[in-house]
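Section 3.1: Structural characterization of target chains.
Under the original work plan, the team committed to producing a structural model for every single-chain target entering the pipeline before any wet-lab resources were allocated. The record below documents one such target. The sequence was received from the expression subgroup and is listed exactly as submitted; it comprises 206 residues.
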Amino acid sequence: MIFLRYESFRSYLRLYPVTAAIIAINLIVYILDHFVYDGALLDKGLFYSYKQENYFSLEEPWRYVTSQFLHLDLSHLFFNMFAILVFAPPLERMLGHVKYLVFYLLCGIVGNLFSAIADSATAGAGASGAIYGVYGAFLYLALMKRSMDPDSRKTVYTILIFGILYSFFVPGIGIWAHIGGLFAGFVLGYAYDWYMIKKSKRRNHP
């Protein structure tokens, strides 16, 4: 079961420095925004796109990234950080630190882009687009590869079923950010797998 975490705190930091940094940045930003800056960081950094203003966030493109590190309330922060804490480490180990960071940010960006495409007036913040990208990569592995153990595969299917249902039936959830992140994670998972297969073939057949 790849999603069970047995590491000590020190080992976790050493093995998964990017995941640990992402969690730390989210926590620090939340504390500063809610207890020091009175919501100013959220105001300046959330993603929004209106036809009359900042359409597709082209006027303020940094919001595609900054919104991934901002959260609306404590429960929003807690559930997202728990998901990253548990599910992201195996992917960071598989991709490597730099590729994983690029993957994470790209999935969040695509999630925001899907929100702008699907809704002419959208606004939101949170790490869930990137998190669903992580789920998307594992969905690719669960469906297309035989290397994932059965318990991990069942966990991926279960978390996605409940997550999608929750996204549809609970108001205020950025469903298109979730779908966009999931799509990006699946496609990037396929692309990485294709690249590794090609690389292996070139190595074995010079």
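The first strand starts at residue 47 and ends at 50.
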